[in-house]
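Homework help board

Subject: predicted structure for assignment chain

Our instructor gave us this sequence and asked us to write out the predicted structure in token form, then describe one feature. I got the tokens but I'm not sure how to describe them. Can anyone check?
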Amino acid sequence: MTGSHPNPATPASDTERTARIRAEVNAACNALRDRHPWLRHQDAIGLGIMLMSAAGMGLCAWLYARGGLSPWICVPLIAIFASFIHELEHDLIHFLYFKRRPWVHNLMLALGWLTRPSTINPWIRRHIHLHHHKHSGTRTDVEERGITNGEPWSFRRFLMIGDGFLAIIFRALSKGNVRQGLRTVGRGLAAYFPVGWFHFVVWYWFLGFHLIDGAAALTGHPISWSGDTLARMQVIDFLTVVLVGPNVLRSFCLHFVSSNMHYYGDVQDRNIMQQTQVWNRWWLLPFHLFCFNFGSTHAIHHFVVGEPFYIRQWTARRAHEVMREAGVRFNDFGTFRRANRYCRAPA
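My token output:
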């Protein structure tokens, strides 16, 4: 008599894997709140982190102005504080703080923009970012494409990662005609207006002056600058150290990580399993230091959108366990060769 054999288990679909990850991560977050009831004061926590981060930036600037802090220490310290504020802005974009008090909510967005002038208008970014969650990795994902996701690796991409203005110019030059290029420039500049314009003016003024001054000195013909010019440069140098420079560093680290841990081009639309990977190797620490461990935790956010960044960090160990079991990729550095494609490099 032939015995009956059960059918082999059918592999879980990506939809089922996504549902399991969401359930497990939500359970971990709820358990954390049960253990720490103070976490339910989400608005107060978010506002407190923002005010303390802004105060930390101000303290570093004050110490630098008084000669008590080296610029080599001041720049990275302020970049770390600014990375906290970036995470807060991202949470605000998802309406995680003061949803019922719009004036506080919008003041926090404004403060976040002023302390991170290298970013686009956060109210514009909200529309772009929410679309990113719906269609991550597709041609319409303007947010990730804007920071070079899907671009072949080159010196051009390296420059675009660290400089939003150069990214606009390079992207405009790659358009098929002048009208499309001008439209690209116009839209890009509008998104940065007015705070981003201040950032780029200060940054290019700083770079231009010191490049010209340094080159002249190297050729043996130093320039004798006027007193007014040197006085203006004291202001530019100060702003570069305490605001612009830290955000250049922070933006580069964030964009490098984000544009490479997201996949692009051959992902199935709305399939969260294919949208991101987890980056948590030790050598990524210098990048993660200035973007609040983004590569390790951002993939969790794609599965569970409604949790603030500090909860996501706190529950990351459990989230990583279930994500790994479900088949989410970890440390797939082949993405550099494939121009961030999920499976294969573009032809």
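Reply (TA_rk): Your tokens look well-formed. For the description, you could write something like this. The chain has a mean pLDDT of 95. That's the kind of observation they're looking for.
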